[in-house]
Write a structure and sequence with these properties.
It is an enzyme of class 2 (transferase). This protein has about 425 residues and is an alpha/beta fold. Helices cover about 40% and strands about 15% of the residues. The strands form five sheets. A seven-stranded mixed beta sheet has the order 4-12-11-10-9-5-6, with helices on both faces. The chain has a four-stranded antiparallel beta sheet with strand order 13-14-17-16, with helices on one face. Strand 10, helix 9 and strand 11 (about 230) form a beta-alpha-beta unit. It is globular. Mean pLDDT is about 90; it is low at about 405-410 and about 425-433. The protein binds pyridoxal-5'-phosphate. Pyridoxal-5'-phosphate (PLP) binds near residues 97 and 180. Pyridoxal-5'-phosphate binds near residues 98, 99, 180 and 206.
Protein backbone atom coordinates (compact mmCIF):
# COMPACT_ATOMS: atom_id res chain seq x y z
CA UNK A 1 0.00 0.00 0.00
CA UNK A 2 2.04 2.91 -1.31
CA UNK A 3 1.73 6.61 -0.62
CA UNK A 4 0.83 8.82 -3.58
CA UNK A 5 4.39 10.13 -3.88
CA UNK A 6 5.70 6.54 -4.14
CA UNK A 7 2.89 5.11 -6.26
CA UNK A 8 2.60 7.98 -8.73
CA UNK A 9 5.22 10.72 -8.47
CA UNK A 10 3.87 12.42 -11.61
CA UNK A 11 0.42 13.05 -10.14
CA UNK A 12 1.92 13.85 -6.77
CA UNK A 13 4.04 16.55 -8.41
CA UNK A 14 1.08 18.03 -10.28
CA UNK A 15 -0.96 18.19 -7.07
CA UNK A 16 1.91 19.91 -5.31
CA UNK A 17 2.25 22.44 -8.12
CA UNK A 18 -1.48 23.22 -7.88
CA UNK A 19 -1.23 23.45 -4.08
CA UNK A 20 1.61 25.91 -4.47
CA UNK A 21 -0.39 27.95 -7.01
CA UNK A 22 -3.34 28.13 -4.62
CA UNK A 23 -0.97 29.06 -1.80
CA UNK A 24 0.74 31.92 -3.67
CA UNK A 25 -2.18 33.53 -5.42
CA UNK A 26 -4.92 35.92 -4.51
CA UNK A 27 -7.94 33.75 -5.25
CA UNK A 28 -10.80 36.01 -6.30
CA UNK A 29 -12.95 33.71 -8.43
CA UNK A 30 -16.42 34.23 -6.97
CA UNK A 31 -17.41 30.55 -7.30
CA UNK A 32 -14.34 29.17 -5.53
CA UNK A 33 -13.34 28.71 -1.91
CA UNK A 34 -10.94 26.78 0.30
CA UNK A 35 -12.63 23.97 2.13
CA UNK A 36 -11.47 22.75 5.52
CA UNK A 37 -9.02 19.99 6.30
CA UNK A 38 -11.88 18.03 7.92
CA UNK A 39 -13.95 18.16 4.72
CA UNK A 40 -10.95 17.09 2.64
CA UNK A 41 -10.32 14.19 5.01
CA UNK A 42 -13.88 12.94 4.53
CA UNK A 43 -13.66 13.38 0.75
CA UNK A 44 -10.40 11.42 0.66
CA UNK A 45 -11.80 8.56 2.75
CA UNK A 46 -12.95 4.95 2.21
CA UNK A 47 -16.48 6.25 1.57
CA UNK A 48 -15.42 6.48 -2.08
CA UNK A 49 -15.37 2.67 -2.30
CA UNK A 50 -19.07 2.06 -1.70
CA UNK A 51 -22.00 1.64 -4.09
CA UNK A 52 -25.37 2.67 -2.66
CA UNK A 53 -27.89 3.27 -5.45
CA UNK A 54 -31.24 4.29 -3.96
CA UNK A 55 -32.05 6.16 -0.78
CA UNK A 56 -31.36 5.34 2.90
CA UNK A 57 -33.25 2.15 3.83
CA UNK A 58 -34.05 1.45 0.14
CA UNK A 59 -30.76 0.50 -1.51
CA UNK A 60 -29.98 -1.74 -4.45
CA UNK A 61 -26.78 -3.01 -2.78
CA UNK A 62 -25.93 -4.67 0.53
CA UNK A 63 -23.52 -3.33 3.12
CA UNK A 64 -25.07 0.09 3.38
CA UNK A 65 -25.76 0.30 7.08
CA UNK A 66 -23.18 3.05 7.71
CA UNK A 67 -23.79 4.79 4.40
CA UNK A 68 -27.47 5.05 5.37
CA UNK A 69 -26.46 6.58 8.69
CA UNK A 70 -24.21 9.04 6.85
CA UNK A 71 -26.78 10.14 4.28
CA UNK A 72 -29.58 10.59 6.85
CA UNK A 73 -27.25 12.70 9.00
CA UNK A 74 -26.26 14.75 5.96
CA UNK A 75 -29.93 15.35 5.09
CA UNK A 76 -30.73 16.37 8.67
CA UNK A 77 -27.78 18.76 8.76
CA UNK A 78 -28.75 20.23 5.38
CA UNK A 79 -32.24 21.08 6.65
CA UNK A 80 -30.85 22.45 9.93
CA UNK A 81 -28.19 24.57 8.16
CA UNK A 82 -30.96 26.39 6.28
CA UNK A 83 -33.38 26.55 9.22
CA UNK A 84 -35.92 24.24 7.52
CA UNK A 85 -38.67 22.22 9.15
CA UNK A 86 -38.33 18.58 8.06
CA UNK A 87 -42.11 18.27 7.93
CA UNK A 88 -42.34 20.96 5.26
CA UNK A 89 -39.09 20.56 3.36
CA UNK A 90 -37.07 17.61 2.13
CA UNK A 91 -33.62 17.44 0.54
CA UNK A 92 -31.73 15.19 -1.83
CA UNK A 93 -27.97 15.33 -1.15
CA UNK A 94 -26.93 13.03 -4.00
CA UNK A 95 -26.62 15.42 -7.00
CA UNK A 96 -23.08 15.19 -8.34
CA UNK A 97 -22.87 18.94 -8.86
CA UNK A 98 -24.88 22.08 -9.63
CA UNK A 99 -25.67 21.50 -13.31
CA UNK A 100 -26.86 17.91 -12.74
CA UNK A 101 -28.99 19.12 -9.78
CA UNK A 102 -30.71 21.65 -12.03
CA UNK A 103 -31.31 19.15 -14.81
CA UNK A 104 -32.73 16.73 -12.27
CA UNK A 105 -35.27 19.35 -11.22
CA UNK A 106 -36.25 19.98 -14.86
CA UNK A 107 -36.60 16.24 -15.41
CA UNK A 108 -38.79 15.99 -12.31
CA UNK A 109 -41.28 18.78 -13.02
CA UNK A 110 -41.23 19.32 -16.80
CA UNK A 111 -42.07 17.37 -19.92
CA UNK A 112 -39.78 17.61 -22.95
CA UNK A 113 -40.25 21.01 -24.69
CA UNK A 114 -42.02 22.61 -21.74
CA UNK A 115 -41.20 26.30 -21.38
CA UNK A 116 -38.74 27.76 -18.87
CA UNK A 117 -37.43 31.24 -18.04
CA UNK A 118 -34.06 31.90 -16.39
CA UNK A 119 -31.69 34.87 -16.31
CA UNK A 120 -29.79 35.14 -19.60
CA UNK A 121 -26.16 34.03 -19.37
CA UNK A 122 -24.64 37.27 -20.77
CA UNK A 123 -26.62 39.08 -18.05
CA UNK A 124 -25.31 36.91 -15.22
CA UNK A 125 -27.34 33.71 -15.44
CA UNK A 126 -25.92 30.19 -15.56
CA UNK A 127 -25.61 27.92 -18.61
CA UNK A 128 -27.88 25.36 -17.00
CA UNK A 129 -30.74 27.89 -16.78
CA UNK A 130 -31.42 27.46 -20.51
CA UNK A 131 -28.65 29.29 -22.34
CA UNK A 132 -28.89 29.51 -26.12
CA UNK A 133 -27.65 31.93 -28.76
CA UNK A 134 -29.35 33.09 -31.94
CA UNK A 135 -27.45 30.33 -33.78
CA UNK A 136 -27.29 27.47 -31.33
CA UNK A 137 -29.01 25.80 -28.39
CA UNK A 138 -25.90 25.67 -26.21
CA UNK A 139 -27.03 24.14 -22.93
CA UNK A 140 -28.80 20.79 -22.71
CA UNK A 141 -31.52 22.71 -20.90
CA UNK A 142 -32.24 24.68 -24.08
CA UNK A 143 -32.02 21.54 -26.24
CA UNK A 144 -34.66 19.62 -24.30
CA UNK A 145 -36.83 22.53 -23.12
CA UNK A 146 -37.99 25.79 -24.70
CA UNK A 147 -36.06 28.61 -23.10
CA UNK A 148 -36.95 32.31 -23.07
CA UNK A 149 -34.49 34.22 -20.90
CA UNK A 150 -35.24 37.31 -18.85
CA UNK A 151 -32.58 39.99 -18.63
CA UNK A 152 -31.26 42.96 -16.69
CA UNK A 153 -32.34 46.53 -17.20
CA UNK A 154 -29.10 47.78 -18.77
CA UNK A 155 -29.51 51.26 -17.31
CA UNK A 156 -29.61 50.00 -13.69
CA UNK A 157 -27.89 46.62 -13.87
CA UNK A 158 -30.85 45.15 -11.93
CA UNK A 159 -33.16 42.33 -13.03
CA UNK A 160 -35.89 43.81 -15.22
CA UNK A 161 -38.88 42.35 -13.37
CA UNK A 162 -41.35 44.32 -15.50
CA UNK A 163 -39.94 42.69 -18.60
CA UNK A 164 -40.00 39.30 -16.89
CA UNK A 165 -43.65 39.79 -15.99
CA UNK A 166 -44.64 40.88 -19.50
CA UNK A 167 -42.73 38.07 -21.18
CA UNK A 168 -44.03 35.46 -18.73
CA UNK A 169 -47.60 36.53 -19.44
CA UNK A 170 -47.05 35.89 -23.16
CA UNK A 171 -44.67 32.91 -22.98
CA UNK A 172 -46.50 31.07 -20.13
CA UNK A 173 -43.48 29.20 -18.70
CA UNK A 174 -43.98 26.16 -16.51
CA UNK A 175 -40.84 26.98 -14.53
CA UNK A 176 -39.22 30.29 -13.57
CA UNK A 177 -35.65 30.15 -12.30
CA UNK A 178 -34.15 32.71 -9.93
CA UNK A 179 -30.43 32.74 -9.20
CA UNK A 180 -27.27 33.66 -11.06
CA UNK A 181 -23.54 33.23 -11.48
CA UNK A 182 -22.67 36.90 -11.78
CA UNK A 183 -25.30 39.08 -10.14
CA UNK A 184 -24.19 41.30 -7.25
CA UNK A 185 -27.67 41.90 -5.83
CA UNK A 186 -30.43 39.93 -4.12
CA UNK A 187 -33.35 38.57 -6.11
CA UNK A 188 -36.80 40.00 -5.44
CA UNK A 189 -38.42 36.68 -4.44
CA UNK A 190 -41.85 38.11 -3.51
CA UNK A 191 -42.11 39.69 -6.97
CA UNK A 192 -40.96 36.51 -8.72
CA UNK A 193 -43.43 34.44 -6.67
CA UNK A 194 -46.25 36.72 -7.82
CA UNK A 195 -45.20 36.41 -11.45
CA UNK A 196 -44.89 32.61 -11.18
CA UNK A 197 -48.33 32.37 -9.55
CA UNK A 198 -49.91 34.59 -12.20
CA UNK A 199 -48.92 32.11 -14.95
CA UNK A 200 -49.12 28.88 -12.93
CA UNK A 201 -45.36 28.22 -12.95
CA UNK A 202 -43.07 26.54 -10.43
CA UNK A 203 -40.55 28.91 -8.85
CA UNK A 204 -37.07 27.55 -8.36
CA UNK A 205 -34.04 29.31 -6.90
CA UNK A 206 -30.53 28.19 -7.83
CA UNK A 207 -28.64 29.61 -4.85
CA UNK A 208 -25.31 28.00 -5.85
CA UNK A 209 -23.29 31.19 -5.45
CA UNK A 210 -24.90 32.47 -2.28
CA UNK A 211 -25.86 29.33 -0.33
CA UNK A 212 -23.35 30.12 2.44
CA UNK A 213 -24.79 33.62 2.72
CA UNK A 214 -28.34 32.23 2.80
CA UNK A 215 -27.40 29.73 5.50
CA UNK A 216 -26.00 32.55 7.65
CA UNK A 217 -29.02 34.79 6.91
CA UNK A 218 -26.91 37.63 5.49
CA UNK A 219 -29.01 37.80 2.30
CA UNK A 220 -32.74 37.31 1.64
CA UNK A 221 -34.16 33.83 2.26
CA UNK A 222 -35.35 32.09 -0.95
CA UNK A 223 -37.06 29.30 1.02
CA UNK A 224 -39.82 31.69 2.04
CA UNK A 225 -41.01 32.02 -1.56
CA UNK A 226 -39.68 29.20 -3.74
CA UNK A 227 -40.98 25.68 -4.33
CA UNK A 228 -37.57 24.20 -5.06
CA UNK A 229 -34.07 25.41 -4.16
CA UNK A 230 -30.92 23.95 -5.73
CA UNK A 231 -27.32 24.62 -4.85
CA UNK A 232 -23.75 23.62 -5.40
CA UNK A 233 -21.88 22.90 -2.20
CA UNK A 234 -18.39 24.17 -3.00
CA UNK A 235 -18.83 27.92 -3.39
CA UNK A 236 -19.72 30.26 -0.51
CA UNK A 237 -20.94 27.22 1.48
CA UNK A 238 -17.28 26.04 1.54
CA UNK A 239 -17.93 22.31 1.18
CA UNK A 240 -16.73 19.65 -1.28
CA UNK A 241 -17.75 19.80 -4.97
CA UNK A 242 -21.34 18.60 -5.08
CA UNK A 243 -24.99 19.62 -5.25
CA UNK A 244 -28.25 19.52 -3.31
CA UNK A 245 -31.93 19.90 -4.15
CA UNK A 246 -34.41 21.14 -1.53
CA UNK A 247 -38.11 20.65 -2.25
CA UNK A 248 -41.42 21.42 -0.57
CA UNK A 249 -43.09 18.35 0.88
CA UNK A 250 -46.64 19.44 0.11
CA UNK A 251 -47.65 18.93 -3.52
CA UNK A 252 -47.09 21.98 -5.76
CA UNK A 253 -49.25 22.42 -8.88
CA UNK A 254 -50.43 18.86 -8.35
CA UNK A 255 -46.90 17.42 -8.35
CA UNK A 256 -45.43 15.43 -5.44
CA UNK A 257 -42.01 17.04 -5.60
CA UNK A 258 -40.40 14.60 -3.18
CA UNK A 259 -40.92 11.48 -5.27
CA UNK A 260 -40.53 13.31 -8.60
CA UNK A 261 -37.17 14.80 -7.61
CA UNK A 262 -35.82 11.71 -5.87
CA UNK A 263 -36.71 9.61 -8.93
CA UNK A 264 -35.17 12.13 -11.30
CA UNK A 265 -31.86 11.93 -9.37
CA UNK A 266 -31.93 8.13 -9.27
CA UNK A 267 -32.73 6.24 -11.43
CA UNK A 268 -33.51 9.16 -13.76
CA UNK A 269 -30.11 10.74 -14.27
CA UNK A 270 -27.60 9.29 -11.82
CA UNK A 271 -26.41 5.93 -10.58
CA UNK A 272 -24.52 5.47 -7.33
CA UNK A 273 -24.12 8.54 -5.13
CA UNK A 274 -20.61 9.80 -4.35
CA UNK A 275 -20.57 8.87 -0.68
CA UNK A 276 -17.19 10.49 -0.02
CA UNK A 277 -18.72 13.79 -1.21
CA UNK A 278 -21.79 13.25 0.96
CA UNK A 279 -19.41 12.65 3.89
CA UNK A 280 -17.56 15.91 3.17
CA UNK A 281 -20.84 17.73 2.70
CA UNK A 282 -22.13 16.53 6.08
CA UNK A 283 -18.97 17.93 7.70
CA UNK A 284 -19.41 21.26 5.90
CA UNK A 285 -23.07 21.46 6.97
CA UNK A 286 -22.03 20.97 10.59
CA UNK A 287 -19.58 23.90 10.21
CA UNK A 288 -22.40 25.91 8.65
CA UNK A 289 -24.34 25.79 11.92
CA UNK A 290 -21.48 27.24 13.99
CA UNK A 291 -21.23 30.88 15.18
CA UNK A 292 -17.86 31.13 13.36
CA UNK A 293 -19.55 30.39 10.06
CA UNK A 294 -21.98 33.25 10.55
CA UNK A 295 -19.09 35.58 11.37
CA UNK A 296 -17.29 34.35 8.25
CA UNK A 297 -20.29 34.98 5.97
CA UNK A 298 -20.76 38.48 7.42
CA UNK A 299 -17.10 39.16 6.62
CA UNK A 300 -17.56 37.85 3.06
CA UNK A 301 -20.18 40.55 2.56
CA UNK A 302 -18.37 43.39 4.38
CA UNK A 303 -15.12 42.59 2.54
CA UNK A 304 -16.95 42.67 -0.76
CA UNK A 305 -18.45 46.05 0.12
CA UNK A 306 -15.00 47.41 1.02
CA UNK A 307 -13.71 46.18 -2.34
CA UNK A 308 -16.65 47.74 -4.19
CA UNK A 309 -16.20 51.06 -2.37
CA UNK A 310 -12.48 51.26 -3.16
CA UNK A 311 -13.02 50.35 -6.82
CA UNK A 312 -15.66 53.08 -7.05
CA UNK A 313 -13.25 55.59 -5.46
CA UNK A 314 -10.71 54.60 -8.10
CA UNK A 315 -13.27 55.50 -10.76
CA UNK A 316 -14.52 52.07 -11.81
CA UNK A 317 -18.04 51.50 -13.03
CA UNK A 318 -19.68 48.60 -11.19
CA UNK A 319 -22.68 46.82 -12.66
CA UNK A 320 -25.67 47.86 -10.47
CA UNK A 321 -23.40 50.36 -8.72
CA UNK A 322 -22.21 48.06 -5.93
CA UNK A 323 -22.86 44.74 -4.23
CA UNK A 324 -25.13 43.15 -1.61
CA UNK A 325 -23.38 39.80 -1.68
CA UNK A 326 -19.99 38.19 -2.27
CA UNK A 327 -19.15 39.53 -5.73
CA UNK A 328 -18.67 42.65 -7.78
CA UNK A 329 -18.89 42.95 -11.52
CA UNK A 330 -16.64 45.64 -12.97
CA UNK A 331 -17.48 47.17 -16.34
CA UNK A 332 -14.11 47.95 -17.98
CA UNK A 333 -15.49 49.22 -21.27
CA UNK A 334 -15.52 52.91 -20.29
CA UNK A 335 -11.72 52.61 -19.84
CA UNK A 336 -11.22 51.20 -23.32
CA UNK A 337 -10.11 47.74 -22.23
CA UNK A 338 -11.75 44.38 -21.67
CA UNK A 339 -11.97 41.52 -19.19
CA UNK A 340 -9.86 39.08 -21.23
CA UNK A 341 -6.77 41.33 -21.22
CA UNK A 342 -7.08 42.28 -17.57
CA UNK A 343 -7.61 38.66 -16.49
CA UNK A 344 -4.39 37.70 -18.31
CA UNK A 345 -2.27 40.48 -16.83
CA UNK A 346 -3.53 39.81 -13.32
CA UNK A 347 -2.85 36.10 -13.78
CA UNK A 348 0.81 36.99 -14.35
CA UNK A 349 0.77 38.59 -10.92
CA UNK A 350 -0.96 35.61 -9.30
CA UNK A 351 -4.24 37.46 -8.97
CA UNK A 352 -6.86 34.97 -10.07
CA UNK A 353 -10.24 36.22 -11.22
CA UNK A 354 -12.32 35.82 -14.35
CA UNK A 355 -13.37 37.83 -17.33
CA UNK A 356 -17.13 38.21 -17.43
CA UNK A 357 -19.69 39.61 -19.80
CA UNK A 358 -21.47 42.75 -18.68
CA UNK A 359 -24.89 43.94 -19.89
CA UNK A 360 -24.63 45.34 -23.41
CA UNK A 361 -21.57 43.29 -24.45
CA UNK A 362 -21.35 42.45 -28.11
CA UNK A 363 -18.87 39.57 -27.86
CA UNK A 364 -18.84 36.70 -25.40
CA UNK A 365 -15.23 35.91 -26.35
CA UNK A 366 -13.90 39.32 -25.34
CA UNK A 367 -16.26 40.31 -22.54
CA UNK A 368 -16.14 43.83 -21.19
CA UNK A 369 -15.90 43.08 -17.50
CA UNK A 370 -14.33 41.15 -14.66
CA UNK A 371 -16.02 39.32 -11.81
CA UNK A 372 -14.36 39.54 -8.38
CA UNK A 373 -15.47 37.48 -5.39
CA UNK A 374 -14.61 37.65 -1.70
CA UNK A 375 -15.33 34.14 -0.26
CA UNK A 376 -11.93 32.48 -0.81
CA UNK A 377 -9.65 35.25 0.50
CA UNK A 378 -12.02 35.81 3.43
CA UNK A 379 -11.46 32.14 4.31
CA UNK A 380 -7.73 32.91 4.31
CA UNK A 381 -8.27 35.61 6.91
CA UNK A 382 -8.42 38.77 4.80
CA UNK A 383 -10.35 41.71 6.19
CA UNK A 384 -11.53 44.99 4.74
CA UNK A 385 -8.09 46.67 4.59
CA UNK A 386 -6.69 43.73 2.59
CA UNK A 387 -9.63 43.96 0.20
CA UNK A 388 -8.89 47.66 -0.27
CA UNK A 389 -5.31 46.61 -1.14
CA UNK A 390 -6.72 44.04 -3.58
CA UNK A 391 -8.65 46.83 -5.32
CA UNK A 392 -5.41 48.81 -5.60
CA UNK A 393 -3.56 45.81 -7.07
CA UNK A 394 -6.31 45.23 -9.60
CA UNK A 395 -6.16 48.93 -10.47
CA UNK A 396 -2.44 48.56 -11.05
CA UNK A 397 -3.09 45.62 -13.39
CA UNK A 398 -5.68 47.59 -15.30
CA UNK A 399 -3.26 50.52 -15.67
CA UNK A 400 -0.70 48.13 -17.15
CA UNK A 401 -3.14 46.81 -19.72
CA UNK A 402 -3.99 50.40 -20.59
CA UNK A 403 -0.38 51.36 -21.03
CA UNK A 404 1.09 48.83 -23.42
CA UNK A 405 4.52 50.43 -23.14
CA UNK A 406 4.79 49.87 -19.41
CA UNK A 407 6.42 46.55 -18.63
CA UNK A 408 4.86 44.19 -16.11
CA UNK A 409 8.10 43.62 -14.25
CA UNK A 410 8.86 47.31 -13.88
CA UNK A 411 5.72 48.12 -11.96
CA UNK A 412 4.44 48.01 -8.42
CA UNK A 413 3.41 44.47 -9.21
CA UNK A 414 6.93 43.47 -8.22
CA UNK A 415 6.23 44.73 -4.70
CA UNK A 416 2.99 42.86 -4.78
CA UNK A 417 4.71 39.62 -5.79
CA UNK A 418 7.04 40.08 -2.84
CA UNK A 419 4.01 40.55 -0.58
CA UNK A 420 2.24 37.37 -1.64
CA UNK A 421 5.37 35.27 -1.32
CA UNK A 422 6.48 36.76 2.01
CA UNK A 423 6.08 34.86 5.29
CA UNK A 424 3.57 37.46 6.53
CA UNK A 425 1.09 36.46 3.84
CA UNK A 426 -1.63 34.41 5.61
CA UNK A 427 -0.64 30.77 5.62
CA UNK A 428 -2.95 28.08 4.40
CA UNK A 429 -1.62 25.04 6.20
CA UNK A 430 -4.98 24.58 7.93
CA UNK A 431 -6.53 24.03 4.56
CA UNK A 432 -3.89 22.71 2.25
CA UNK A 433 -1.42 20.61 4.22
N1 LIG B 1 -25.71 27.25 -10.84
C1 LIG B 1 -25.02 28.40 -10.71
C2 LIG B 1 -25.77 29.65 -10.37
C3 LIG B 1 -23.65 28.42 -10.90
O1 LIG B 1 -22.98 29.57 -10.81
C4 LIG B 1 -22.98 27.22 -11.22
C5 LIG B 1 -21.54 27.15 -11.43
O2 LIG B 1 -20.79 28.04 -11.41
C6 LIG B 1 -23.75 26.06 -11.36
C7 LIG B 1 -25.10 26.11 -11.16
C8 LIG B 1 -23.16 24.79 -11.85
O3 LIG B 1 -22.40 24.13 -10.98
P1 LIG B 1 -21.42 22.96 -11.45
O4 LIG B 1 -20.28 23.64 -12.11
O5 LIG B 1 -21.11 22.35 -10.16
O6 LIG B 1 -22.18 22.07 -12.37
Amino acid sequence: DYSLSEADPEIHTIINKEKNRQFRSLELIASENFTSRAVMEAVGSCLTNKYSEGLPGKRYYGGNEYIDELEVLCQERALAAFGLDGKKWGVNVQPLSGSPANFEVYTAVLNPHDRIMGLDLPHGGHLSHGFMTAKRRVSGTSIYFESMPYRLDESTGLVDYDMLEKTATLFRPKLIIAGASAYPRDFDYPRMRKIADSVGAFLMMDMAHISGLVSASVVANPFEYCDIVTTTTHKSLRGPRGGMIFFKKDPVLGVELESAINNAVFPGLQGGPHNHTIGGLAVCLKHAQSPEFKIYQNKVVSNCRALAKRLTELGYKLVSGGSDNHLVLVDLRPLGTDGARVEKILDLASITLNKNSVPGDKSALVPGGIRIGSPAMTTRGFGESEFVAIADFIHEGVQITLDAKKSVTGSKLQDFMKFVTSPSFPLMDRVLD
